């Protein structure tokens, strides 16, 4: 049995800047982009020594699925990614980003008229 690898510390390094970005997101598109680009940067740092290059097509925020995000088949079928995914807390760290995004998503949906008014002015 392999030891559990933790990426929580690295995730925490991204957390403050990420919170600032999503709190300043003016619409749902910005929100999804902030989530995707933060997680892409986070994953690319983890896999920087490998051949795996993670891009915008590999992760999407989706409030309609259980984990609140979707990973591409290319990513989930990659041998190295699957190995790290299976022996680490990567899933829970990404879920924390998605959960924060979802809270902001709910807030933006409740206050959609204010958001639209800001965009028109």
Quick take:
Helix content is 64%, strand content 5%.
Strands, helices and their partners?
Layout: H1 8-23, H2 28-46, E1 59-61, E2 69-71, H3 73-76, H4 79-86, H5 90-110, H6 112-120
Antiparallel strand pairs: 1-2
Helix pairs in contact: 1-2, 1-5, 2-5
Can you walk me through this structure?
The chain has 121 residues and is mostly helical. It has one domain. Helix content is 64%, strand content 5%. It is built from six helices and two strands; from the N terminus they run ααββαααα. Strands 1-2 form a two-stranded antiparallel sheet. Helix 1 (8-23) packs antiparallel against helix 2, helix 1 packs parallel to helix 5 and helix 2 packs antiparallel against helix 5. The longest helix is centred in the C-terminal third of the chain and has 21 residues, at 90-110.
Mean pLDDT rating: 90
**CA-based gyration radius:** 15 Å
The helix tally amounts to 6
Helix content: 55-70%
- Structurally, the number of domains stands at 1
Q: How much of the polypeptide forms β-strand, as a percent range?
A: under 5%
Structural class: mainly alpha
The outline comes out as globular
Note poorly predicted spans.
none
The quaternary structure here is single chain
Q: What is the distance, rounded to the nearest whole angstrom, between the alpha carbons of the first and last residues? A: 58 Å
Task: Characterize the biggest β-sheet.
Answer: 2 strands, antiparallel
Question: What attributes does this structure have?
Answer:
121 residues; mainly alpha; two-stranded antiparallel ribbon; 5% strand; globular
């Amino acid at each position: 049995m392999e030891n559990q690898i933790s990426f929580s510390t690295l995730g925490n390094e991204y957390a403050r800047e990420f919170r600032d970005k999503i709190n300043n997101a003016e619409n749902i598109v910005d929100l999804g982009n902030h989530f995707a680009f933060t997680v892409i940067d986070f994953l690319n740092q983890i896999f920087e020594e490998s051949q795996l290059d993670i891009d915008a097509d590999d992760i999407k925020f989706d409030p309609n699925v259980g984990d609140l995000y979707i990973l591409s088949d290319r990513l989930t079928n990659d041998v190295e990614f699957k190995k790290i995914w299976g022996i680490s807390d990567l899933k829970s760290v990404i879920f924390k980003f998605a959960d924060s995004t979802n809270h902001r998503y709910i807030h933006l949906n409740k206050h959609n008229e204010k958001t639209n008014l800001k965009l028109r002015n």
